Amino acid sequence: MDVYIPTPDGQWVSEKFEQLAQTVQDYDHNLELRWIPPAHRTRDDKKPYVIWDNISNSPVLYASELDSPQDILANLFMADNVKGGNVLSRLDAHNAAAEALRLRAQLDEREAMKDKVAFLKGTPLHYIKMGRDDDGKIIKMDDTRRRI
Length: 148
Hints:
Elements (H helix, E strand, L loop, with lengths): L3 E3 L5 E3 H13 L3 E5 L13 E5 L4 E6 L5 H12 L6 H36 L4 E6 L5 E5 L6
Antiparallel strand pairs: 1-2, 3-4, 4-5, 6-7
Helix pairs in contact: 1-3, 2-3
């Protein structure tokens, strides 16, 4: 299931592309994934994503909504690879892109878990609902984290 994140101009972008943007930044701090609003797309293909080089202030590559984040990252890796025509290099780049995106998703999940733990640790409530047990009863914990 895709999750969408709002942009400052009121549009919605896929969470997968937000993770791709963070992964591109991890790969090279001088690059960033940008989303081009429909009114500002000047190319004939109307591709909504561009990886932008902040040093040269120019685009590195454009991507469509149909391109997967994994393919976009693999294309970025291949653009840096001097052996662009080598099939093995392309497979390595594709696998490296998949692993980089998997690690970014794992890191985001851990950050969310840290936030949840910090909230639960500091909550002033008398009890917290923690889900359901095997019998279907709601599990409640008091402020000292004892089951009630």
